[in-house]
Design brief:
five-stranded antiparallel sheet, Beta-Lactamase, single chain, 12 strands, 464 residues, five-stranded mixed sheet, 3 domains, 12 helices, Helix Hairpins
Length: 464
């Protein structure tokens, strides 16, 4: 029973909740102000009535002179009725109250007789039966045991207060209604960016459209819109990278697959009874081509898997000794290149990262240097500290170097210069190097080595 209204409120829209909040706040403020105003006016009205009674009673006590009961009973009641007043004279010695014959006696209580007996100077009270305010004051000389009682109707004051309460109620209701209307307008205006964000989210979920939302202003909602647009941009960039990867991978896979299919079809066709036969030398050459194409496909698929793994966000927190990583990569590179020597100079360096990814990046740089180095040359590998909280891994070869037109593109996926297209490779090795460096907070650069060949530099943060 108690949870139901709360649940209903939680299910209401944010605009409705803002409207109800504004209405409730204004209603509370109007109620407090109206109650305070009513109480102040009520006190002022009754204080004025009481002050008028005291003034009238003082005038009667000093200016109203009677010597016999007949004078009181014959007092003109019409004069009193004009002021909606009742008057009487209490005589404590006889226990009687004298009042005009044509009028009505004022209300009397025990305390009024005490005033007549001299025990009180005055007494004022409200008689709820007759709806009058009554005052009793001493009358006559000391020892006369008399008191004047004057009663005045409270109906005019009550009528005034009733009208005031109606006015305050109407004004308060109008204020609450205006507050609800204003709250609705403010909520509609203020929550319009939120509505746009909601519509954009629904559009992305339903259609995949990643068009940014127009931003206006510089408030919190505008900053939220900027953040949402940045998220949309990141998602769009990720999708574009995926599309490029799939398109480039399909393009790169098409050539070796087509060549392999041609060679296999040729081998199968040569086995048919009515087909021309191939010489053993041609068969060995075709089989060698198939093996090379299989190796190329294996390398390409491995690079694609590695590149996709590097694209996925990963938490890096493993302490890595970069010298050990480079030595493992060197061992693998030496087994692959028997006609090239390595000139290695390493300084101690550690960082937080992924040792397998770093080893793959260094191995890719070494394989690239070996591929372009002439037989009998040396590949230089250096790990040195640069004094700004980072270290650089430099791999230089003695090959032909990188053309100026190719330098800006060597780290792009599937990019291969005209000289490299005839050599084995997938065009993904240097792209993997760049992604590994970025994932570890570093950079990868390409340039010319003093030996005349290519120089690749991998800068990584860490400590000695």
């Amino acid at each position: 029973m108690i949870i139901e209204p709360q649940g209903r409120l939680q299910r209401a829209s944010l605009r409705a909740r803002v409207t109800w909040l504004a209405a409730f706040c204004v209603a509370g403020a109007v109620a407090l102000v109206s109650f305070g105003a009513y109480m102040i006016v009520r006190k002022s009205v009754y204080d004025a009535l009481e002050e008028g009674l005291r003034s009238r009673a003082a005038t009667v006590a000093t200016g109203f002179k009677v010597t016999t009961p007949d004078e009181v009973q014959n007092y003109p009641a019409a004069f009193l009725a004009a002021g909606d007043v009742k008057m009487g004279l209490l005589q404590a010695d006889t226990g009687k109250i004298l009042y005009p014959k044509t009028g009505e006696p004022p209300p009397v209580v025990e305390e009024a007789w005490e005033v007549a007996q001299g025990e009180r100077p005055e007494y004022i009270w409200t008689d709820h039966r007759t709806e009058t305010r009554v005052i009793a004051v001493r009358y006559g000389p000391e020892g006369s045991d008399q008191a004047v009682v004057i009663a005045q109707s409270m109906q005019p004051q009550r009528t005034t207060l009733a009208k005031l309460s109606v006015v305050l109620l109407l004004i308060g209701g109008a204020g609450v209604l205006l507050a609800a209307i204003a709250g609705t307008a403010v909520a509609r205006t203020g929550l319009r960016p939120v509505q746009r964000l909601t519509e954009a989210t629904e559009r992305v979920a339903n259609t995949g459209d990643l068009t940014p939302i127009p931003v206006s202003g510089d408030d919190e909602l505008a900053r939220l819109t900027h953040s949402f647009n940045a998220m949309l941009g990141a998602v769009a960039e990720s999708q574009e990278r995926q599309r490029r990867l799939v398109a480039d991978a399909g393009h790169e896979l098409r050539t070796p697959l087509t060549s392999m299919r041609t060679n296999l079809e040729l081998l199968l066709a040569s086995e048919r009874p009515d087909s021309p036969t191939l010489s053993e030398e041609d068969k060995r050459e075709i089989q060698s081509d198939v093996r090379a194409q299989l190796d190329e496909l294996t390398t390409l698929i491995g690079d694609l898997v590695e590149l996709a793994r590097e694209d996925a966000p990963q938490v890096i927190h493993e302490p890595v000794d970069l010298v050990e990583v480079i030595e493992r990569a060197m061992d693998r590179a030496r087994r692959r290149a028997s006609n090239v020597t390595f000139d290695v100079q390493l300084q101690p360096w550690t960082l937080l990262g992924d040792s397998s990814a770093l080893e793959r990046a260094v191995l890719n740089l070494l394989d690239n240097a070996v591929k372009f180095s002439p037989s009998g040359s040396a590949v230089r590998l250096t790990l040195r500290q640069v004094g700004d909280g980072s270290a650089v891994v430099e791999v230089a070869d003695a090959g032909p170097g990188i053309a100026d037109a190719d330098l800006p593109h060597v780290f792009e996926r599937f990019y291969r210069s005209s000289e490299a297209r005839t050599l084995p490779g997938s065009g993904l090795g240097l792209a993997i190097v760049k992604q590994v460096a970025q994932r570890h907070g570093g950079t990868a650069m390409a340039g010319r080595a003093p030996e005349g060949g290519a120089l690749f530099t991998l800068r990584l943060p860490g400590r000695p």
